[in-house]
Design goal:
With 315 residues, the chain is of the alpha+beta class. It has 5 helices and 14 strands. A hairpin with a 3-residue loop joins strand 8 and strand 9.
Length: 315
């Protein structure tokens, strides 16, 4: 897969020639969803996308389009390491990163003492290093652990992995329209889940990069990597960390020429992600805005991609 410079600053695809391999996803049985930890999102009409000065034509934020969003449930938090660990214990599922034997880790987080485990870096995004043994359970590779991060979002999960978890839990991934509507609390033209200023009321509302990317993070928000899923305040719908922390997989196939409908297309290997991550910074990747969007391939995994689930409403 060939990626543009605009996309590659935010995400990195497993489809790199130096480490390419074909994988298949495992099917998991379904069950009735538990909605006790989910927020109920009321139905509404919404203007998807943006045409303000920050919006990107290349990313497909424009043109704006009117959508009708039925009521649904959404996880208040991104799926955590603890929740994903429970899924693995119950099913024996093996993630794409584990099948490949490696995943992408941000260079400042790699243990340089394990230099032999560093398999290489993509030319366009040298701040990402392919680390042997990196996976959801070992986020930085060998000798790393999630023991003290059980309430952090699970990372190094592909779209395939997220689908498997959703199927097991009786849930599904959100469409872009559902995700964007929920992140904005149904408020049209809201830039961030809390309002229209990044540091509104002179405080941090999300986990994004501060400093000079990619080498200096001043950690003014308290974090170099992921934050707990319940850190920072929720939006009006009761959803936490819809901007920053980790990118979140959506159901939709990515297109930079979006339709006027609420699209779900299952025949493509390039899927939409929303929300930005702890690596986003306005100087190079202003994609922690609600309307911002980018993509990755279904088998790709990195240290800044996670997901949350939704379920259909019976109200």
């Amino acid at each position: 897969m060939t990626t543009s410079n605009n996309q590659s600053c935010c995400t990195v695809s497993r489809h790199q020639d130096f480490l390419k391999k074909e994988m298949n996803v495992t099917s998991i049985s379904t069950k009735t969803p538990n909605t006790s930890t989910m927020a109920w999102i009321p139905a509404g009409e919404f203007l998807l996308g943006s045409e303000d000065e920050e919006s990107s034509v290349e990313d497909g934020e424009t043109p704006r389009r009117k959508v009708q969003v039925p009521a649904f449930y959404m996880d208040r938090y991104a799926v955590t390491n603890e929740q994903f660990s429970h899924f693995i214990e119950k099913t024996g599922y093996v993630t794409d990163a584990e099948k490949y034997g490696w995943s992408f880790v941000f260079h400042l987080l790699v243990n340089k003492e394990n230099e032999k485990d560093i398999l290489g870096s993509p030319e366009q995004t040298p701040w990402w290093e392919a680390v042997q043994g990196a996976s959801w359970k070992y986020p930085e590779g060998k000798n790393s652990s999630i023991v003290n991060r059980l309430n952090h979002p699970v990372i190094h999960v592909s779209w395939n992995d997220a689908q498997a978890y959703c199927s097991w839990s009786g849930k599904r991934l959100p469409t872009e329209a559902e995700w964007e509507y929920a992140a904005s609390s149904g408020v049209v033209d809201r830039i961030y889940p809390w309002g229209n200023e990044l540091n509104q009321d002179d405080k941090h509302h999300c986990n994004v990069w501060q400093g000079d990317f990619p080498n200096v993070n001043t950690e003014e928000d308290g974090f170099l990597s992921t934050a707990p899923v319940d850190h920072f305040e929720p939006n009006d719908f009761g959803l936490y960390n819809m901007s920053g922390n980790v990118w979140e997989w959506c159901e939709d196939t990515f297109s930079n020429q979006p339709t006027l409908t609420n699209p779900v297309q299952l025949d493509s290997t390039v899927k939409l992600i929303k929300g930005g991550s702890y690596l986003c910074h306005k100087s190079y990747c202003n994609r922690y805005r609600i309307s911002a969007r980018t993509y990755n391939t279904v088998d790709s995994s990195t240290g800044h991609m996670g997901f949350r689930c939704v379920a259909n409403s019976n109200k």
